[in-house]
Amino acid sequence: MRGLIGAAGLLACAVTAASARVDNDPDAYVVNFYTGGGSDGVLFAAGTANQQCTNLGAPDISVVSASPGVTLSIRPGSFVVTGTDYGYLVCEGQRMQGTIVTGTGSGQAVIKVTYPPVGQWYTHTLTLPAR
Fold first, then answer.
1. What is the Cα–Cα distance from 67 to 87, expressed in whole angstroms?
2. How many other C-beta atoms can be found within 10 angstroms of the C-beta atom of residue 72?
3. What are the percentages of helix, strand and coil residues in the chain, rounded to 5?
4. How far is Cα 18 from Cα 84, in angstroms, rounded to an integer?
5. Where residue 24 falls among pLDDT bands split at 50, 70, 90?
6. Cβ neighbours of residue 86 under 8 Å, at least 6 residues apart?
């Protein structure tokens, strides 16, 4: 019986140590909402990642309003991180998968960006210059 209790105790210690490593890793739980765009025809881009720049899902982007003649295209794609809606800029300068916005026309458009995993959202005003 004593051997069983000793083995169970060792197993419990091993499980506790393994889970402590995960629970004490703050990078695994921090969610950053990244933005980019302004070059290569991309007006705006957004992505979600943790502190280790691991992608946590593509944001949903919708058009709230747009000037007459402004047409936006929203699709999955990669972009270079240049800013953040929330979080730390640990991934600045890195290429990330997310959602990108391109457009034609001149005027302004307001977009709503909803980030996974909890649905936090922000609006952005995009200005398309006259060409």
1. 31
2. 19
3. 20, 50, 30
4. 33
5. low
6. 31, 32, 33, 115, 120, 122
Fill in the DSSP letter of residue 65.
Answer: E
Q: What is the mean pLDDT of residues 3-28?
A: 49
Token couple for 107: 């005027």
Per-residue tokens: 129: 């210059």
Per the CB < 8 A criterion, the answer to whether 32 and 48 are in contact is yes
Summarised one tens digit per residue, pLDDT across range 82-116 is 999 999 999 999 999 999 999 999 999 999 999 99
Nearest to 70 by CA among 131, 112, 2: 131
CB 45 within 8 A of CB 79: yes
The structure tokens 């800029």 sit at: 89
Side chain identity at residue 39, one-letter code: S
